[in-house]
Design goal:
By secondary structure, this protein is α/β, with parallel strands linked by helices. Helix content is 34%, strand content 26%. The protein contains 11 helices and 21 strands. It has an 11-stranded mixed beta sheet, with helices on both faces.
């Protein structure tokens, strides 16, 4: 069994290495390994050794520069051999230099990856060191080069857009496990409903896991030349050959324990009939500080509070959140904020593991997985409220649903998991999926 797992890791590493090498050949070789390149401004959230990589999936059209359809920030620490992935909804309302406030995916149309990088740095208050741009349409060919992938579709998906500039878009997918070509898989990733970007991001993360699982299969080895060619045509990056080699080495080691992934916390809102995602600046900065291994206090916290206040002040009248209009006073605060100004604000202490009640639900069908996860969480100090068997035994992914102020406590779990906001304060649910086998 160990020999088989080792072989799969070697094959996966070979595929990733070959693909990244092909993408890197267009750039000059620069020694020194994977290290910080971006200048760190005074007050920015930055630890001693972590590196931030901006990953963009761009939907480019004929005679149109396109917009970033997918935006993720990978925080990699070569020294600690850790990595985390943060997905930023494309509807996130941010300040774009020279263009006022707009959705973050518009930054690419205004000024390419450089302007997107500035918007991300301002939002997270972290330096972005490298970028990777993937042409989403070309990525379909990579999936086909892999002979398609298998995805367990969670629900019925149907959508029509007769005005799509490719001659019309129709997404028609039924629930259940199915084999998908590149075209069908991209439809699965692009589908949006009332969940908006939240649902899309979950599907994107699920999609990438399916791609990596397929890439790890021994039968892919003979197809490497075609896969390499497709990657070379569809990926652009400023990472050097040396950077990529080190990046892959870190990712390989992190895969053995699982990479934490989360979505930027915030709330959906509407303005003049257009949907937006309003980010929670304070929670975002707390997550960035946790990923960098630096305390969220002092000047770092004050800078976050000032940016959050400015963001709220710049919010125009008419934004609606959960069906209710967001009203602001003359200073830019909400009505609730104005009432709170009368009393001094007490500092909020960060959540501690022992303050979080955790329900562990084993939906994986793996005997003993619930008890193992409960033991891991118990060792980390969490209060285990219950260990239960789920209503199904074939859940594909392990998820951790926590409240915003405690999400960072779950980073670094020794098993693959997706960390999401949405639990009541002081509570969390760990729902174990089949990916627990890959720990």
């Amino acid at each position: 069994m160990q020999q088989k797992r080792s072989y799969r890791r070697v094959v996966l590493l070979g595929i990733i290495l070959s693909a990244l090498l092909a993408a890197a050949l267009a750039y000059h070789f620069v020694g020194g390994g994977l290290g910080r390149r971006a200048p760190v401004e005074q007050g920015m959230i930055a630890g001693a050794s972590e590196v931030h990589v901006m990953i963009m999936g761009v939907d480019q059209r004929k005679d149109d520069v396109g917009r970033s359809d997918t935006l993720m920030i990978a925080t990699v620490d070569p020294e600690k051999e850790t990595a985390a992935l943060l997905s930023i909804p494309r509807d996130t309302r941010v300040a774009i230099e020279g263009n006022g406030y707009d959705k973050i995916n518009a930054a690419y149309a205004y000024g390419g990856h450089e302007l997107t990088k500035k918007a991300v740095e301002q939002l997270l208050d972290v330096p972005v060191d490298y970028y990777v741009i993937i042409d989403i349409r070309a990525f379909e060919r990579i999936i086909d080069a892999l002979d398609g992938i298998d995805i367990d579709v969670e629900k019925r998906m149907y959508y029509e857009d007769p005005w799509d500039d490719d001659g019309g878009l129709v997404i028609d997918i039924y629930p259940g496990m199915q084999h998908m070509t590149g075209r069908k898989a991209i439809q699965y990733v692009r589908y949006r409903d009332m969940e908006g970007d939240i649902g899309r991001i979950r599907r994107q993360q699920k999609f990438m896991r399916a791609v990596l699982e397929k890439a790890a299969s021994p039968g892919i080895l003979p197809k490497l030349p075609q896969i390499i060619e497709e990657v070379r045509e569809s990926v652009k990056t400023d990472m050097s050959l040396s950077n990529m080699l080190d990046f892959v080495q870190v990712i390989k080691k992190v895969q053995e324990t699982g990479m934490a992934s989360a979505m930027a916390p915030g709330n959906p809102a509407w303005y003049k009939g257009v949907s937006y995602w309003l980010p929670d600046i304070m929670k975002l900065r707390e997550m960035a500080a946790a990923a960098a291994g630096v305390p969220f206090e002092g000047e770092t916290q004050k800078r976050a509070e000032a940016d959050a206040a400015q963001y709220k002040k710049d919010l125009p009248e008419g934004f609606r959140l959960d069906g209710a209009e967001i009203l602001t006073d003359a200073a830019g605060g909400t009505e609730q904020d104005a009432a709170k100004k009368e009393a001094p604000k007490e500092p909020v202490a960060p959540a501690k593991p022992q303050e979080i009640k955790v329900r562990v639900v084993n939906s994986s069908g793996i005997t003993g997985a619930g008890a193992e996860v409960a033991a891991v969480l118990g060792q980390k100090g969490f209060f285990i409220q219950s260990v239960e068997t789920g209503s199904r035994s074939d859940r594909s992914e392990t998820t951790i649903t926590a409240s915003g102020n405690s999400m960072n406590l779950f980073y670094g779990m020794p098993f693959p998991c997706i960390i999401m906001d949405g639990a009541p304060k002081g509570e969390a649910v760990v729902n174990i999926g089949r990916d627990y086998l890959k720990r």
